[in-house]
Design brief:
23% of the residues lie in helices and 28% in strands. The longest helix is centred in the C-terminal third of the chain and has 22 residues. With 309 residues, it is of the alpha/beta class. Helix 1 runs parallel beside helix 2, helix 1 runs parallel beside helix 6 and helix 4 packs parallel to helix 5. Strands 1, 2, 3, 4, 5, 6 and 17 form a 7-stranded mixed beta sheet that branches. It has a 5-stranded parallel beta sheet with strand order 8-15-9-10-11. A 3-stranded antiparallel beta sheet has the order 12-13-14, with no helix packed on it. It has 6 helices and 17 strands. It folds into 2 domains: 180 residues, FAD/NAD(P)-binding domain (3-Layer(bba) Sandwich); 105 residues, FAD/NAD(P)-binding domain (3-Layer(bba) Sandwich), CATH 3.50.50.
Length: 309
C-alpha cells in the first residue's frame, strides 16, 4: 500500500488552522488538519464575539461551525489526532500522534494555539471541574443563581464575566492591579453592570472548600492583608501558554514558548510555518489568526513550488 503523504499538514483546528485549510484547499494542495480535541480552539469557548468583521455579534460555536463547513467544502481532511512530536525525514516531516500513528507531509503549518495559564495555587487542581473553570461558555450555566469570582483584568476576564451575569447572581472580578487592561468598551459595560463587583490590587492565594469550591483566600498586594471571599466557583483568565511542546528542539521558540516567526509566518526550520496564537505577535485575536492562516498556506504553496515538491 502506498503511504499517504500530504502537501501540507496543519496542526491545530482553530481559526488560524481552519483558514490555512481553506486557502490550501483553494490552492489544490492535498491538506489535512490535525486537531486534538474539537475545532475552534479558544474561539469555540468564547461566548460572544463582537470584533470579527461582518458580525455585530456572533457566538464562538456558530462561527466555528461556519468555518469548519467551509473547510470541508474544499476536501480538506480534519483528523482528530493529538500531535506529540515532529521531526524531519529527508524531504518530508514525520508527525507523531498520540495513537502511535505517523502522518507524513511535505510542509507543516503549526497553528496549535494556546491554553489557559493556571494560577498555581492550592486548590486549583483539586477543584477543577468542581468549581474551578477556565471557560465560562462551557460551565457558566452550572452556576445559575450563585456567586462566582473571575480572576484577571484583560478582555477575556471581563468579557466572560459579563457573560456569566446571564446566569449568576453576582460576579466578583479580582485583579492584581488598580485598573483593568480590557478594552474601554468592555470596561464601560462591566462598570455599568449591577451584578459585577471588583476587588482591586489583589491575588488569589488559595481556593478552598470541601466537595466543591466554597471560598477564595485573597491577598491585597499593596497592604498584605488577606481576606476570605465566599464563592461557588472561580473562572480563571490570567493569560495563555502556547501549545508548542511538540516543537521544542524543532524550531526556534522564545523564552515563553512561542514560535519565533514574523508576519510571513516563516520559522527557523524551512518548510514549517507558524500561524495564530502560537507565534510571536503583538495582537492575538481571531482576525489576526485568520490572517496568519491565509499567509501560512500561501507560504507553504510557494515553498512547495520553488522546490518542485
Amino acid at each position: 500500500m502506498v503511504e499517504e503523504v500530504y502537501d501540507v499538514a496543519i496542526i491545530g483546528g482553530g481559526p488560524a488552522g481552519m483558514t490555512a485549510g481553506i486557502y490550501a484547499g483553494r490552492a489544490h494542495l492535498k491538506a489535512c488538519i490535525l486537531e486534538g480535541m474539537s475545532t475552534g480552539g479558544q474561539m469555540f469557548t468564547t461566548a460572544v464575539i463582537e470584533n470579527y468583521p461582518g458580525y455585530d455579534s456572533i457566538d464562538g460555536p456558530a462561527l466555528t461551525q461556519a468555518m469548519e463547513e467551509q473547510v470541508r467544502r474544499w476536501d480538506v481532511k480534519i483528523l482528530y489526532m493529538h500531535v506529540t512530536g515532529l521531526k524531519r525525514q529527508a524531504d518530508l516531516f514525520a508527525i507523531e500522534v498520540l495513537s502511535g500513528e505517523t502522518i507524513h507531509a511535505k510542509t507543516v503549518i503549526a497553528a496549535a494555539g494556546s491554553k489557559p495559564r493556571r494560577l498555581g495555587v492550592p486548590g486549583e487542581n483539586e477543584f477543577q471541574g468542581r468549581g474551578v473553570s477556565y471557560c465560562a461558555t462551557c460551565d457558566g450555566a452550572f452556576f445559575r443563581g450563585k456567586s462566582v469570582a473571575v480572576v484577571g483584568g484583560g478582555d477575556s476576564a471581563v468579557e466572560e464575566g459579563l457573560y456569566l451575569t446571564r446566569f449568576v447572581d453576582k460576579v466578583t472580578i479580582i485583579h492584581r492591579r488598580d485598573q483593568l487592561r480590557a478594552s474601554r468598551h468592555l470596561q464601560e459595560r462591566a462598570f455599568a453592570n449591577p451584578k459585577i463587583e471588583f476587588i482591586w490590587d489583589s491575588v488569589v492565594e488559595a481556593i478552598e472548600g470541601h466537595q466543591a469550591v466554597e471560598q477564595l483566600r485573597v491577598k491585597n498586594v499593596k497592604t498584605g492583608a488577606v481576606t476570605t471571599l465566599p464563592a461557588d466557583g472561580v473562572f480563571i483568565y490570567v493569560g495563555m501558554l502556547p501549545n508548542s511542546e511538540f516543537l521544542q528542539g524543532v524550531v526556534e521558540l522564545d523564552p515563553w514558548g512561542y514560535v519565533v516567526a514574523g508576519e510571513d509566518t516563516v520559522t527557523s526550520e524551512p518548510g514549517i510555518f507558524a500561524a495564530g496564537d502560537i507565534r510571536t505577535k503583538s495582537l492575538r485575536q481571531i482576525v489576526t489568526a485568520v490572517a496568519d492562516g491565509a499567509v501560512a498556506a500561501m507560504a507553504a504553496e510557494k515553498y512547495l513550488g520553488e522546490r518542485g515538491l
